[in-house]
Design goal:
With 257 residues, the chain is mainly alpha-helical. The chain folds into two domains: 63 residues; 154 residues, Up-down Bundle (f41 fragment of flagellin, N-terminal domain). It is 72% helix and 4% strand. It has a two-stranded antiparallel sheet with strand order 1-2. The longest helix has 53 residues. The radius of gyration is 38 Å and the shape is rod-shaped.
Length: 257
């Protein structure tokens, strides 16, 4: 085997291939370890942009689905509050009818008035209920329920209010309030149902996007294992060749002593 003192190009090539196969093997190790095909921009400069868009859209769909679930929960809470208010109003109407009857003794009428006052106070507390830290009723609520820029505005109704003192024992006035509260409860319940379906749709959209992201970025385990073994063998072969050349060079130096 001829050894040149001016430059051993075979050894240089061997060093080059050691680096190349070592880098390729390291890339396969990273992919096998992470399960992801694109771990850096160097793996796929164009693909990492697409992967970023897919992941961003999937994450946004997750957030929108959670927003829809939160909005649905708000609607259900409002629905329940209206239901409690209606129960109170039904009893107040009953008390109003009893209160006007001549057969009710004064002592009994006083008991009815005490109950009516307590129930009416409770209506005022329902009006002041909060969802988290925000007032449950009386304002237009803006929910972000999409992965784009669109928003949805929902109003769960004006809530309920205490019956004015002069109307507390008038059944017709209470009936008017019952009608208004029942209508508001229907609106809140309907909105909650619609938001629930919306949340389900966004959750399905999110799942589809995450599946697309996984399919696009998932490493091919069998292929990467084959590449790793092949590059490891080539790297070791190049190291052996380089070692042999180093030994030859050392032998030449010994002859020159």
């Amino acid at each position: 085997m001829m050894v040149s003192s001016n430059g051993d190009y075979a050894a240089i090539n061997a060093s080059k291939f050691i680096r190349r196969h070592g880098n390729n093997a390291a890339t396969s190790v990273a992919r096998l370890s992470s399960g992801i095909r694109i771990n850096s921009g160097a793996d796929d400069p164009a693909g990492i942009v697409t992967a970023g868009h897919l992941k961003g859209n999937a994450s946004a769909a997750d957030a929108a689905a959670q927003n829809a679930q939160n909005a649905a929960a708000w609607g259900k809470a409002a629905d329940s509050a209206y239901g409690s208010a209606l129960d109170i109003l039904y009893r107040l109407k009953e008390i109003a009818v009893q209160h006007q009857d001549a057969t009710v003794a004064s002592a009994n009428r006083a008991g009815l008035e005490a109950e009516a006052t307590a129930l009416n106070d409770r209506l005022g507390k329902i009006q002041n209920q909060k969802f988290g830290t925000q007032s449950m009723f009386g304002s237009n609520l803006t929910f972000y329920l999409s992965t784009g820029s669109a928003t949805t505005t929902i109003n769960f109704g004006a809530g309920v209010s205490s019956v004015a003192g002069s109307k507390l024992y008038k059944a017709s006035e209470i009936e008017t309030q019952i009608t208004a509260v029942a209508k508001a409860q229907g609106t809140a319940g309907g909105s909650a149902n619609a938001l629930g379906y919306f949340a389900d749709g966004l959750a399905a959209e999110s799942a589809a996007m995450w599946s697309a992201y996984d399919d696009y970025t998932q490493a091919n385990t069998a292929s990467e294992m084959t590449k790793f073994v092949r590059n490891s063998v080539y790297e070791q072969s190049a190291q052996l060749i380089l070692s042999q050349y180093n030994q030859n060079a050392y032998s030449v130096l010994n002859l020159l002593r």
